[in-house]
Every structure is written in structure tokens, then in C-alpha cells.
Automatic annotation (TrEMBL):
This is Bifunctional protein FolD. The gene is folD. Belongs to the tetrahydrofolate dehydrogenase/cyclohydrolase family. It comes from Diaphorobacter ruginosibacter. Pathway: One-carbon metabolism; tetrahydrofolate interconversion. Its EC number is 1.5.1.5, 3.5.4.9. Residues 140-283 form the Tetrahydrofolate dehydrogenase/cyclohydrolase NAD(P)-binding domain. CDD domains: NAD_bind_m-THF_DH_Cyclohyd (cd01080). The lineage of its organism: Bacteria, Pseudomonadati, Pseudomonadota, Betaproteobacteria, Burkholderiales. GO terms for molecular function: methenyltetrahydrofolate cyclohydrolase activity; methylenetetrahydrofolate dehydrogenase (NADP+) activity. One of its GO terms (cellular component) is cytosol.
Length: 286
């Protein structure tokens, strides 16, 4: 048995088409164009690529996008002032400050300055709290994308399923666990302090690997027929992009698997568009 592929590119294209239609409908009805502001401080090469992709995706969906690039010497106070100005700009519905920031700027302080109503990355404490207690808020884009991938294969309600999350980051691991819990899964969070990772993953109907470490999940650690979502972004010995999962080995056992590249990656930016669209719709109905 070879696992079926969950195609993030195809699902992403479908969702982006839906978002573009929603944006056009909102503009026709209320004159409002969804607006996303992206702030990039410094010259991190990977960040520049991510930001370029986000701006391009916005334009393709018919959004109004603003890209603000600043020198690495920008002060924390200057950045916070820019965020506050965007909070008060009615044409902007989502604010994204690309991480990592230069060392002299406190990431947490910057994220907390973004209005929760415009926190389309879903990183604000208010967004995390809303997810925790089941209130309306913005969901962190990567785990949100993973949930949409599960839905696409008919796994919207995970009642009776055991889901294991590998990783406990605030950006993926923790919100992923909360979203799986909200979908009625029984959830186990594993991490570097877990004594026997394989003992946990072999029980799982769904495994989400999100630690940024190659081959953290191998064939012998997967229950036959399980769904494996690979959030990792690493490089193999030949410099090729790979995930956290031993893809060739695990696909011989799993029922479904996400590839890297072409799996979770495209979904992250797509869910950013979905969140921005929701923010614009809320603003129109306010």
C-alpha cells in the first residue's frame, strides 16, 4: 500500500479562487477592497522570498496590498508607531510583521501591538486565547491550513480519532493541538521531553510533524493507514527541500501523506488570505 497524496497546491488554488470571488463580491456590494499590510525589517533572504510570495498572492486575489520595507537599523519605537498607524488605517484589514526581526526589537511586543481585529497571522495573545476557549478570532495560518487539508479528505469531524502533534511551538504545535481538539480528536502533544515518541505515534490516526528536524518520523513509527501531515521545512544532504517525515519510508505505511514541497507550504499563505478576507467582511458588517 502506498499513501494517497494530500495535494496542498491543488487545494490552495481552489481556496484562492474562492477568496478572489468573495473579494470581488465584497467590493461590488460595499466598495471595500480587502487590504493587507506587510512589514519587513532588515534583509533576511528567506523573509524577502516569503514576503514577495504573500504580496503576489494578495494581488492575484484582488486585494489591496502594502509592502513596507525598512532598514535593519529601524528602532523598536519606530516599528511600533508604524503598526499603530496601520491599526488606525481603515483600508487595511490585516497586518503582518515578518519574523524574525532584528535582535534589538522585541517580537512579542510588536505582535501584541497589532490590533487583534487585524491579527491575520493569528499570533496575538488574544487570538491564541480565543482559539483556546472557542471564541471567534483569527487562527494561526499553518495549523489552519493543516485542518483544511484534513477536511479535504473527509476528516472534518475527528471524533474517536487519536491525533499526535510532534512539536509545541506557539506558531504551529500548540494551536494545531487546539484545532484538532475543537474537531473532537483525542490529542497528544509530544516534544523533546517525550521519552518514547514512537510509542505515541504508533497509536495515532493522525500525526502532525512540526519540529523542523529531518526524519523525526520514520516508517516504523506510523500506524498502517494513518494520516501524516508534514509541516517541516528542512534541507537534505543534497540541499533539496524536505520535511520532518521520512517521506519515502512513511508513504509505504500511511493512508494519506502531505509532500514537501507542495503540501502544507502553499496552504499557509492561502489561509493568510482567508483570514484577511474574513477581517474585511467583518469590517464591512460592523
Amino acid at each position: 500500500m502506498t499513501a494517497q497524496i494530500i495535494d496542498g497546491k491543488a487545494l490552495s488554488a481552489q481556496l484562492r479562487t474562492e477568496v478572489a470571488a468573495r473579494a470581488a463580491a465584497l467590493k461590488a456590494k460595499s466598495g471595500i477592497t480587502p487590504g493587507l499590510a506587510v512589514i519587513l525589517v532588515g534583509d533576511n533572504q528567506a523573509s524577502q522570498v516569503y514576503v514577495r510570495n504573500k504580496v503576489k498572492a494578495c494581488e492575484e486575489a484582488g486585494f489591496h496590498s502594502v509592502l513596507e520595507k525598512y532598514d535593519a537599523a529601524m528602532t523598536e519605537a519606530e516599528l511600533l508607531a508604524r503598526v499603530e498607524a496601520l491599526n488606525n488605517d481603515p483600508t487595511i484589514h490585516g497586518i503582518l510583521v515578518q519574523l524574525p526581526l532584528p535582535k534589538h526589537i522585541d517580537d512579542h511586543k510588536v505582535i501584541e501591538t497589532i490590533s487583534p481585529a487585524k491579527d491575520v497571522d493569528g499570533f496575538h495573545v488574544a487570538s491564541a486565547g480565543a482559539l483556546m476557549v472557542g471564541e471567534v478570532g483569527f487562527k494561526a495560518c499553518t495549523p489552519y491550513g493543516c485542518m483544511r487539508m484534513l477536511e479535504s479528505i473527509g476528516m472534518k469531524d475527528l471524533r474517536g480519532k487519536h491525533a499526535v502533534v510532534i512539536g509545541r511551538s506557539n506558531i504551529v504545535g500548540k494551536p494545531m493541538a487546539m484545532m484538532l481538539l475543537a474537531a473532537n480528536a483525542t490529542v497528544t502533544i509530544t516534544h523533546s521531553g517525550t521519552a518514547d515518541l514512537g510509542a505515541m505515534t504508533r497509536q495515532a490516526d493522525v500525526v502532525v510533524a512540526a519540529v523542523g528536524k529531518r526524519n523525526v518520523l520514520t516508517r516504523d513509527m506510523v500506524k498502517p493507514g494513518a494520516v501524516v501531515i508534514d509541516v517541516g521545512m528542512n534541507r537534505d544532504d543534497d540541499g533539496k527541500l524536505c520535511g520532518d517525515v521520512d517521506y519515502e519510508g512513511v508513504r509505504q505505511v500511511a493512508g494519506w501523506i502531505t509532500p514537501v514541497p507542495g503540501g502544507v507550504g502553499p496552504m499557509t499563505i492561502t489561509m493568510l488570505l482567508v483570514n484577511t478576507m474574513e477581517s474585511a467582511e467583518r469590517a464591512a458588517n460592523a
